[in-house]
Automatic annotation (TrEMBL):
In the presence of PdxS, forms a dodecamer of heterodimers. Only shows activity in the heterodimer. The keyword Ribonucleoprotein does not apply. The active site is at C82 (nucleophile), H173 (charge relay system), E175 (charge relay system). Belongs to the glutaminase PdxT/SNO family. This is Pyridoxal 5'-phosphate synthase subunit PdxT. It comes from the Archaea. One of its GO terms (molecular function) is pyridoxal 5'-phosphate synthase (glutamine hydrolysing) activity.
Length: 192
């Protein structure tokens, strides 16, 4: 059966998320990937991707577009990367972000220090047979996770991949680099 994935299209690397999910869904006939800007766009989605970008800006635009309650109450799968991970938390170290509390975790923005702009690391991720080349860009990290949150990857700076039911959050950018194993894991996990 086809899957309908929405990508929150307020700010950030929206096009990369759309391309990656379209690619990951080529073997699932009847699937579609659409941008989400308004409440009505959320209606019939199986999953929502929240992109990387600037979490303070995305948070402000979520409020402005009346999307806070609808997204906080969204019951499908969520695939969040970087700024998206910040938004999914229940506590964030920056008052300009109103977290959606979709995953019980505390997240620090820019957990790698201000001077570190970006870096790559070969990361062991639970559920993947081979390491994943993770691209970190001014990345956050979870400092604490609540009950029911599965830690999928951890590095010295903190927790960088988690799963909570059908919701997954990554401090890095699986939508960049062409390796779609985490997208596939997420799509498999929607059936849970
Ligand atoms: N540091 C950014 C933020 O907290 C996230 C960076 C990114 O998404 N690449 O919004």
């Amino acid at each position: 059966m086809g899957v309908k994935v929405g990508v929150l299209a307020l700010q950030g690397d929206v096009a990369e998320h759309i391309t990656a999910f379209r690619e990951a869904l080529t073997d699932r006939p009847g699937s579609s990937v659409v941008p989400v800007r308004r409440v009505a766009d959320l209606g019939d989605l199986d999953a929502l991707a929240i992109p990387g970008g600037e979490s303070t800006t995305i948070s402000r635009l979520i409020e402005k577009n009346g999307l806070y309650e609808p997204i906080a109450g969204f019951e499908g799968g969520i695939f969040a990367t970087c700024a998206g991970m910040v938004l999914l938390a229940d506590r964030v170290d920056d008052p300009r972000v109103r977290p959606l509390s979709l995953i019980p975790m505390h997240v620090a923005r820019n957990a790698f220090g201000r001077q570190v702009d970006s870096r790559e690391a070969m990361l062991d991720v639970a559920g993947l047979a081979e390491p994943f080349r993770a691209v970190f860009i001014r990345a956050p990290a979870a400092t604490e996770v609540g009950p029911g949150v599965e830690v999928l990857a951890r590095i010295p700076e903190g927790i960088v991949a988690v799963r909570h039911g059908r919701k997954m959050a990554f401090a890095f950018h699986p939508e960049l680099g062409g390796d779609l194993r985490l997208h596939r894991m997420f799509l498999e996990n929607l059936r849970v």
